[in-house]
């Protein structure tokens, strides 16, 4: 609904209100044994979906539901007593949501050059989750079924007051404004559960007889901002701008406020007289900017406080420690410089290219601390990081006519990420040599996600066991590796070794995973280039658009593949990838897949370079075809336009391994519980009156 009011020319107002209601069914998408993706990927195909009678080998009829009884794997080697597909089919997990969006504005034209703009936006959402597990089968059969309900209520508001001045003097054009903006959000969570169901398909608590303790809490966040901007241009050719702002965030305890700003300049070169002799280049603009940017995302809502959980201990109050807060935590500050150009080559090509460098100081960083203090890490402002990159956007107009057109656009980014400084190690009082985060290592000169792990050396052709590279310093020169000469972490070793000691380093192979040396392997999840290319075209009343996403030059850890390349425990203990067919089976065999040993070979699929693969991909993100019905078909009707369209999302993916989707995670890694974006087809009809 849209309401516009303009009783006087100096006063205007608008109001928009929208409401939506949605129902989402998402069973089988948890990150546990209830995940259908985990179940299907890892369940060996020797196991049936439905239960068979041991005597007749026939399906067993379900005494409670129509059809056949699902096999919950009593005595099964994998996922005993689970059947995620059955749980998704027989259980209930849906969310119903009500959303209201409202926006209103009141603008006052004080003078022809001075105006006051006031805007208020409100968003309200109320979502109810109903989760029910049936009383006969699955994870809550022993409790006689289970009902869980969660209510989530969110209210956001955004208030903007802006005083704007705009004036032109001959060829001089000025625009300036000062503003205040206030944003706040509050989310309330409430949940409760009961078990022992009366009826197998009811989701209300009156359908159960035993209660679990309920719970609730409220999250709050607010941001207060004051800012101003001044823009100037001379004759539409030379442009200058400056911005200052001050932001205060409720996330920080002592140091809430940060001061930021930027300056920028642009030159519309194509308006200069000398460009009249270069007709092939049009709309040439050169631009540059420098600014300070604040960052406070990804740190939670209360990082300045020590957090505790309230619990019941024998009907008394018990507080358990959750996380350590840092009241001195404050804004990350990034210094960003950017230069770029925009231009057209005749009527056929549009080009935009930008180079930027962004140095972030006071990184919000999880610093490891000694375990004796009672917590593993403390979030601090420390360390420095630099990002540099080139962004480009090129559009080619391949076909241009009155009714037909075809445009091809390609854009992308070439990025480089480097640590400039690491946090101080509280144990030494000096800058850390390396910060380990799983299979990644952070060190000066490396990115925040460079792989730091063991090198897979291959399979021993005589024994069929996995081997890894072990680096060692041959201190006595006898060319015989001693356990005391092994290098555990190459970065730590190189930081203290002399030039002469480094010359003694040698590499051997070991079948003991713990002896393998962890080191930088010169691979990173950051691609050399990533972006998209699109096609937009029209032929008569038809139009078509397609968008592809691409990424080239990065690497990722394929954890789901590693799980399917296990050495084999008990018979039927897990599914296999088809690559297991290349496993070692006889002495002298050359292969990079170790033997199957019924789980006797430790660390067969532990983290190493064996499961790091290229994360290059090409995906068809969206394609849409539309048709505008000619107006002659509804000349004598109130209809003014009809448009039909069909759209498809995530229809194609090409990557290094079938089923491996590097686009589903920041680092490109896979996970046995994560599912790729689903392929969807949508059709629509739009009618105008």
Protein architecture, described:
- This protein is mainly beta.
- The chain has 5 helices and 35 strands.
- The longest helix has 7 residues, at 36-42.
- The chain starts with a strand and ends with a strand.
- The model has no long low-confidence stretch (mean pLDDT 93).
Q: How would you briefly describe this protein structure?
A:
By secondary structure, the protein is mainly β. Helix content is 4%, strand content 52%.
Distance between the termini: 16 Å
Global structural class: mainly beta
How many E strands? 35
| Uncertain spans | none
Shape: globular
Assembly category: single chain
Q: Approximately what portion of the residues adopt beta-strand conformation?
A: over 45%
Overall mean pLDDT stands at 93
Helix content: under 10%
Radius of gyration: 31 Å
What's the total helix number? 5
Main sheet overview = 20 strands, antiparallel
Descriptive labels:
single chain; 689 residues; three-stranded antiparallel β-sheet
Topology:
Layout: E1 2-8, E2 11-25, H1 36-42, H2 84-90, E3 92-109, E4 114-133, E5 146-169, E6 172-197, E7 208-211, E8 215-234, E9 238-249, E10 257-268, E11 281-295, E12 307-313, E13 316-323, E14 332-345, E15 349-361, E16 364-368, E17 377-381, E18 384-400, E19 404-421, E20 424-425, E21 430-431, E22 435-437, E23 440-442, E24 452-454, E25 456-459, E26 466-473, H3 490-496, H4 499-502, E27 505-510, E28 518-520, E29 529-539, E30 542-552, E31 555-557, H5 559-563, E32 612-614, E33 617-628, E34 641-655, E35 680-688
